[in-house]
Amino acid sequence: MRITLDDVTVRFGDRTVLDGVSLDLTEHRVGVIGPNGSGKSTLARLLNGLVTPSRGTVRVDGLSTAEHARAVRRRVGFVFQNPDNQIVLPVVAEDMAFGLRNTGVPRKEIPARVERQLARFGVAGLAERPSHALSGGEKQLVALASVLVMEPDTVVFDEPTTLLDLRNRNLIRSYIDAMPQQAVVVTHDLELLCGYDRVLVVDEGRIVHDGKPLTAVPWYVEHCS
Ligand SMILES: Nc1ncnc2c1ncn2[C@@H]1O[C@H](COP(=O)(O)OP(=O)(O)OP(=O)(O)O)[C@@H](O)[C@H]1O
């Protein structure tokens, strides 16, 4: 999957949150790091059309996110930082099945697919539970599962481990490391980025460093802490 940003600026009111960003993302594992409020989530949201540019274009395999939002969202899944933004239906399994219903997956295969994905995260027991009554970490795991069950070509993760205990954080880290799809991961958890192909450092709406984790992480620690 190739995601290209061509001179992208994002403004909210009179605030410029991303400023003239150009990128060509083809790598299997891309990390995005930077200080609070630097524009990381906004950059992540651009990649599947949740945010569209005020100027410039974002293309996913050649499709403009502004013009082809539905097609882009099928290709690029997005895991929200706050799982409450992700989970819409009152029962976990129903919520996960909801997205699959419009994707051409045969109806009778849906429950097994949902169960398999929950089992991968060790939470198959949550399938029939009310989603509003899950703990924060359980919600985060269900939110991850509900995006991954759709099998998008690329998954954008916005701080996927913030609510997780050490064991589940390691589980998700291993899962992301092993998954066959392209992943773009926004995180403050610098260890997640070990072995990534590329790490972007964002500061004040610009890409201030772009390299391998071995150079990007120390650069970030030195310049942004
Ligand atoms: N919808 C919006 N309307 C107005 N301002 C916004 C909106 N979304 C983001 N911002 C502002 O844009 C800036 C960048 O936000 P963004 O969420 O991209 O930062 P971030 O790098 O992900 O931060 P953090 O590490 O704290 O999650 C912030 O100052 C934020 O307040």
UniProtKB/TrEMBL annotation:
A GO molecular-function annotation: ATP hydrolysis activity
Top-level taxon of the source organism: Bacteria
Matching InterPro entries: AAA+_ATPase, ABC_transporter-like_ATP-bd, ABC_transporter-like_CS, ABC_transpr_CbiO/EcfA_su, ECF_ABC_transporter_ATP-bd, P-loop_NTPase
Ranges for domain ABC transporter: 3-224
Keywords: ATP-binding, Nucleotide-binding, Plasmid, Transport
Pfam families: ABC_tran
Similarity section: Belongs to the ABC transporter superfamily.
Descriptive protein name: ABC transporter ATP-binding protein
